Every structure is written in C-alpha cells, then in structure tokens.
C-alpha cells in the first residue's frame, strides 16, 4: 500500500514535471521565433540609409509612446471612476454622521441610558479585544470591584 502510494505520487510529480517542461519548451520556441524576427528587422534596418534608420527608430518610439499613453489614459479613467465612487460614498457617510449628530443634540438626556445599554451589547458581541476599556466615571468603583473579584 505505501509503495503504491509513493509510486502514484512519483508518477504525478513526473507528469507535472513533463507538463512544465513542455510549457517551457513552447515558451522557448516562441521567444526564439520573436528573437529571429527582431534580428531580421535589425538586419533590414542596418541595410537602410542612416536617415531612414533614424526615421524608423522614431516611428517605433512613437508607436511605443502611443501605446503607453493609451494604457495611462485607461488607468486614469479607472482612477477617476473610483474617485467618483468614493466621493459619493463620502457624501453618504457625511450625511449619516450629520443625521446622527443632529439626533444626539435633540435629546441627549433621554438617550444616555439607552446608549449605555447599546454599548454593552456591542462590546459583548465583539470578540477581538485590544486591551482598552470604555466606561463611565460613575461606574469606576463597580468596575474595580468586578475586576478584583
């Protein structure tokens, strides 16, 4: 049983290795083909007059820069869309904060006991504690007594 398992693992590794080698051979063939094309283009360029060589080089550089500019424009568009989305989210959150602050200023005395209960419920649900504790000053003796016991 163990020998068969090891043989199966060895065959799997051999198959993976052969697949990787085939992929690398294909990649090598593509690179060699690309290199041959570049060498032919280079030899053709050398046969041209110096003025035509310069013009050819400039055309290649213009093409490269145009492609780079298109990529940068695409990236810029993505970033602008993301910026608009984030600005919308910020407006929504700012509105929520203003609404919350407005509701706090309307009835601060009525809400205090309710807020205290909500904080306790939230603290109990939270499982990731950072070593900080929030409490009211008047609850300090009770908190100390509970910590000691």
Outline the structure in words.
By secondary structure, this protein is an all-alpha fold. Among the domains are: 7-47; 53-106. The chain is 87% helix and 0% strand. It has helices at residues 2-47, 50-106, 108-125, 140-148. The longest helix has 57 residues, at 50-106. The radius of gyration is 35 Å and the shape is flat.
Q: For the report, how would you describe the main beta sheet?
A: none
- What is the number of E strands? 0
Order of helices and strands: HHHH
> How far apart, in Å, are the first and last alpha carbons?
59 Å
**Global shape:** flat
Number of helix segments? 4
Low-pLDDT residue spans: 120-126
Overall average pLDDT: 83
Based on secondary structure, the structural category is mainly alpha
> Roughly how much helix do the residues carry, as a percent range?
over 70%
Strand content: under 5%
Cα Rg: 35 Å
Keywords: Coiled coil
Organism: Pycnonotus jocosus (Red-whiskered bulbul)
Protein name: MYO5B protein
Coiled coil: 3-103
Question: Features of this protein?
Answer:
149 residues, mainly alpha
């Amino acid at each position: 049983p163990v020998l068969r398992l090891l043989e199966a693992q060895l065959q799997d590794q051999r198959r993976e290795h052969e697949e990787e080698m085939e992929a690398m051979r294909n990649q090598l063939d593509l690179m060699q083909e690309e290199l041959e094309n570049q060498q032919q283009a280079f030899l053709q360029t050398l046969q041209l007059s110096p003025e035509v060589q310069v013009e050819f080089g400039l055309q290649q550089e213009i093409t490269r820069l145009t492609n780079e500019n298109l990529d940068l424009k695409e990236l810029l568009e993505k970033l602008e869309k993301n910026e608009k989305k984030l600005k919308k989210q910020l407006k929504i959150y700012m509105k929520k904060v203003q609404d919350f602050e407005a509701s706090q200023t309307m009835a601060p005395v009525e809400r205090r006991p309710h807020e205290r209960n909500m904080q306790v419920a939230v603290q109990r649900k939270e499982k990731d504690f950072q070593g900080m504790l929030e409490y009211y000053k008047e609850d300090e003796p009770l908190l100390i007594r509970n910590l000691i016991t």
